[in-house]
Design a protein that fits this description.
The chain is mainly alpha-helical. The chain is built from eight helices and no strands. It folds into two domains: 30 residues; 134 residues, no CATH class. Helix content is 69%, strand content 0%. Helix 4 packs antiparallel against helix 5 and helix 5 packs parallel to helix 7. The radius of gyration is 20 Å and the shape is globular.
């Protein structure tokens, strides 16, 4: 056996051990598919189940984009623990179709939800329009009004820029 073969074999064994350790450390849990997670977010029996499903959906990445969009649109609850990971997933995936729902969430009672929704819009639209979750309600309303107008004018450009997201 040559030295190169030994080094490659050792590297492969180390990689296998690392993958096994990562799997065991996670409890051996596998993520459920995005469609199953969508159902749990929307129709879960408890906030705990809905929150876990929303957090798990984040880990699926781009393949979960349409499911995350639907979850955010169809979730009728108001719990920040469920909404915040959904919004985070939308931001991570830069899902421009969710901007109207994000605008609605920028008016949420919880400043964490408002802040994440505002940050998601900044990420997707590519500019900071001055929305601050802790500003006075009138200031937030005025900023949001301006952002909605900008969004309307930018919509054709957003569609073109994000054309690769067509599903």
């Amino acid at each position: 056996m040559t030295r190169t073969t030994g080094v490659l074999g050792g590297a492969a064994a180390l990689l296998a051990l690392l993958l096994l350790w990562t799997y065991l450390r996670s409890g051996g849990d596998r993520l459920d598919p995005p469609d199953v997670l969508l159902e749990r977010v929307v129709r879960g029996d408890s906030v705990k189940i809905q929150t876990k499903a929303a957090q798990d959906m984040l880990q699926h990445g781009e393949e979960a984009r349409p499911f995350a969009r639907r979850a955010l649109a169809e979730y009728t609850g108001n719990d920040p623990a469920v909404l915040m990971p959904l919004v985070q997933g939308i931001a991570k995936q830069r899902d421009w179709r969710s901007i109207p729902r994000l605008f609605t969430l920028m008016e949420h009672d919880d400043p964490g939800v408002r802040g994440r929704a505002g940050a998601a819009v900044v990420t997707i639209m590519g500019a900071d329009y001055g929305f601050r979750a802790n500003d006075a309600p009138q200031v937030r309303r005025e900023t949001l009004k301006n952002m909605r107008a900008i969004h309307t004018s930018l919509l054709p450009k957003l569609q073109k820029f994000y054309a690769s997201q067509e599903e």
